[in-house]
């Protein structure tokens, strides 16, 4: 009997020592997966946070670049109405605030005084934002595959010309 009491006491002390090493009484492999899942979760949260911050920064830079052109901002419908009144075609710029190529077009081409002056004299300018309902309608109607897309339209909204993307003001003016 004395041996069985000793064996029970030894078994009891081993169980207590295992519980102190592994407080949740989980196998070591299970603990590894819990830690790995937590690490992956933290990584995903950080990745999503970085993405959101990047989108906000890109959008902020894009809005500033668009404003810096100094070109008037009309909705698409306003531009068509003004085109009818003034007898000018519409220069439609389909873009997005977060689009690096759109920002470059604004900064390197549309903000240049000679380009801006030519546009204001000969066209009704409109910027259609990809991230709006108007943008989605425009994209479907004119088969815009991406941003930026520049179109010259008549006062009824019929496409007269699709411009090739260039960041050289002289080449841009040649297309107009």
Q: How does this structure look, described?
A:
This protein has 176 residues and is of the alpha+beta class. It has helices spanning 2-21, 28-68, 76-86, 100-110, 113-122, 133-142, 169-175, and strands spanning 90-95, 124-129, 149-153, 159-162. Strand 3 and strand 4 form a beta hairpin. Helix 2 packs parallel to helix 4. The longest helix is centred in the N-terminal third of the chain and has 41 residues, at 28-68. The mean pLDDT is 81.
Would you kindly provide a brief summary of this structure?
Helix content is 62%, strand content 12%. It is of the alpha+beta class and 176 residues long.
List its traits.
single chain; about 180 residues; alpha+beta; Glutaredoxin; 2 domains; four-stranded mixed β-sheet; 7 helices; 4 strands; about 60% helix; about 10% strand; elongated; transmembrane helix
Distance between the termini: 105 Å
Rough outline? elongated
| Largest sheet geometry | 4 strands, mixed
Question: Helix amount, in percent?
Answer: 55-70%
- How many domains in all? 2
Write the layout of secondary structure elements.
Layout: H1 2-21, H2 28-68, H3 76-86, E1 90-95, H4 100-110, H5 113-122, E2 124-129, H6 133-142, E3 149-153, E4 159-162, H7 169-175
Parallel strand pairs: 1-2
Antiparallel strand pairs: 1-3, 3-4
Helix pairs in contact: 2-4
């Amino acid at each position: 009997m004395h041996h069985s009491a000793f064996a029970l006491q030894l078994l009891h002390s081993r169980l207590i020592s295992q519980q102190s090493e592994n407080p949740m009484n989980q196998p070591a492999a299970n603990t590894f997966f819990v830690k790995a899942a937590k690490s992956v979760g933290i990584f995903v949260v950080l990745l999503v946070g970085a993405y959101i911050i990047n989108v906000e920064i890109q959008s902020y830079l894009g809005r500033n670049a668009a404003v810096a052109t100094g070109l008037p901002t009309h909705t698409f419908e306003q531009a068509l109405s003004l085109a009818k009144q003034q007898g000018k075609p519409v220069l439609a710029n389909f873009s997005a605030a977060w689009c690096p190529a759109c920002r470059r077009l604004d900064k390197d081409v549309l903000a240049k005084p000679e380009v801006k002056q030519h546009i204001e004299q000969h066209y009704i300018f409109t910027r259609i934002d990809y991230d709006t309902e108007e943008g989605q309608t425009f994209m479907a109607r004119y088969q815009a595959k991406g941003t930026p897309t520049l179109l010259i339209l008549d006062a009824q909204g019929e496409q007269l010309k699709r411009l090739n993307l260039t960041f050289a003001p002289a080449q841009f003016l040649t297309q107009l």
